[in-house]
# Entry
Amino acid sequence: MLPLCLNTSTIMPRPLPEKIEVAARAGFDLIELWCNDIEAYVQEGHTLASLRALLHHAGLGVPSLISLSGWADAAPADLPAALERARRRLELAAALGCPRVVASPPTQRTVDLADAGERYATLLGMGRRIGAMPAMEFLGFAPQICDLRTALEVCARANDPQATVVLDPFHIFRGGGSFEEVRLVPGHMVAICHFNDAPDTKPRAEQGDADRVQPGDGVLPLADMVRSLRAIGYHGPVSLELFNRDLWAQPPLEVARQGLERMRTLLADS
# Structure
């Protein structure tokens, strides 16, 4: 079975130590952390060493952090500052023994894809030196890099063998892509696969992150996606990533356990 991961967006808003405890008690193998949470934890007076100790005690690995933003659409004069922010977050990941940081696309504007590819190549070179690599993400509600094919084009323009993409069924659906496109990606090129479902109670083009639901509570072909992941030889984590405010209001351990069992069932039956 693929390693099962909890993205902490699923149980917001909770203190970072509680999120780690919930992931461990629920039975997850891994936990996907947000850089904002880690930075707030440090600003409160804690250290990265204490965070590493919490993770070690919980028996949780960290496959990726979220996220790098502003790198693709920064004006030329602002690009050095955007790259410096990215460098700090890549160093944060390396300090935690985390191999990747999700590199998110612009959500408000379009960019030249050749330029985005060059900038992604810069991030990849930076990541190699630091020891944590950026993974190209597409967002279904973004104006341009909203589907898998466009994310793959950015990777191709980066022309780097360590370019990778983040898969996410909600964003495939929201961006109007086809789930068959997953089979276009070699398994080694998938950094991580986020996991979620989408309802049929709202038009696709009107859905946002908060509309995501637990696997099995929506209409997405998740079993087909699991079969596609196996077909391309993907062996990495499947990470439960929800932003549903109704779920945030529920006991976090119950939400995490339900999501874990849903993923286990899908993986076993697909």
In short: The CA atoms of residues 178 and 213 lie 20 Å apart. The mean pLDDT is 97. The two ends are 11 Å apart (CA to CA). The first helix runs from residue 16 to 26.
